[in-house]
Each structure stands twice: as C-alpha cells, then as structure tokens.
Amino acid sequence: MSQPTLPVVVVGSGLAGLTSVYKLLERKIPVILIDKMDKMGGNSIKASSGINGVLTSTQKQFGIEDSVQGFFEDTKKSGGKIGDLNLQQKLVKESTEAIRWLQQDIGVPLDLVNRLGGHSQRRTHRSSNIPPGFEIISKLKNKIVEHEENLKLLLNSQIVDIDISNGKIIGLKVLDLINKHEDYIKTNQIVMATGGFGFSEELIKKYRPDQINNFRIHQKNKTIKQFTQNKNG
C-alpha cells in the first residue's frame, strides 16, 4: 500500500473511529480526526457490558467450552433471524482475533468473562472493576498519542459539505461549532465512523423501511447529517 499524499479524514471517535486512526497511524499515514463532541469516545465510551468473543484465552483460562457455530446460532437467534448472515458470520469468526488484539496489542486485560442475555455460554469479556467502553477507549487514546506527530484532532467540529469531482472525493468543509468558522480540508479518503442512523426515523423509512418497527438506538450525538451526505455522495 502506497502512502497517501493527502491525510485520511476519520469522522467519529468511538471504537471504530479510534481503531481506524490507530491502524493508519501505525503505518505512518497522516490522519485528521473529526468529532462534533468536545472529547473523544462517542457512544462507545458508555458501553458497560463487555465484548463478546469465542475461543479466547480468557475462556480457556476458565475452562469454558465454546464454539464458533454456537456463537453464530445465538447471534442469529437474538437478531430475530432478520440480520445479515454474512455479517453475523464475520462478527463471530473474527471475534477471537478481536479479543486477542485488544488484550495483546492495546493492553486491555479482559480477564473476566460472563454469560449475558442471548448467549448459551460465558463469552462476554470485560476487565475487573472498570467499564469496558471507558477502558478500551482510554487505552486506544493512549496508543494514538504515541503517534501524535501524524495526527490532527478537530473536536467540536462537524462536516458541512463533502466536495466531489468526477465521482471522487477531493475535499470537505468542516465547521468549528464553537467559533462558527469553516475550514476546507483537501483529502481523497474519508472513513465514516459516525455510527448508524438509528436515531433518525426519517432515514430508517428511506433506507430500511422493513426495519421501522424494530428496536432503535436513540443517542443524541448520532451524526445523522454526515451519514446522509455520505450516502448522497
């Protein structure tokens, strides 16, 4: 992979956003991280239950016998059998490596494992005496700081326009929500890590009308406008 001449813009600083930033910075790729909140973490920092994984070192330590197929069947059943089976398979199969990466590369102990709703085995991992969302976000932030020379952080900021020419992204406009100042960033790569559109009934009706009566997450810091711009672009 050749190093981009322009920075990669990552929008959203939850678990997906910070993971993307860290993996890019590891490769010495310059990154601009944008979040409209006044601190990093998004909704991920509020996560309080744990992260599910199968065939992990923690499960083995506690003598828990589990399987990828068992995890998949539980996931399919919990989703009311209406979820994307390919995505569910990917989630389950890659969960072992996800837990290993958090433990060994990021330094999150995840030394406890419990059985929570919808699971037939103990496979929800967390560390002792600390909420998992806060811990994972904190550890990722510490890792990112190690590469801060290639990172520009724009908090209290929001994308107001994505500039597209001949079907390709060439830049974007960012609004400073405090000073009400707009800035233009040249980039040809954007990682949208702003979460879903569960807060917007309008977008659910437009893109997934079949899901309008199903459970939705209502979080006021969901970035609906950014997602809409991304879809239209």
UniProtKB/TrEMBL annotation:
Needed cofactors: FAD
Keywords linked to the UniProt accession: FAD, Flavoprotein, Oxidoreductase
GO molecular function annotations of the record: oxidoreductase activity
Residues covered by the FAD-dependent oxidoreductase 2 FAD-binding domain: 8-212
Protein name per its UniProtKB record: FAD-dependent oxidoreductase 2 FAD-binding domain-containing protein
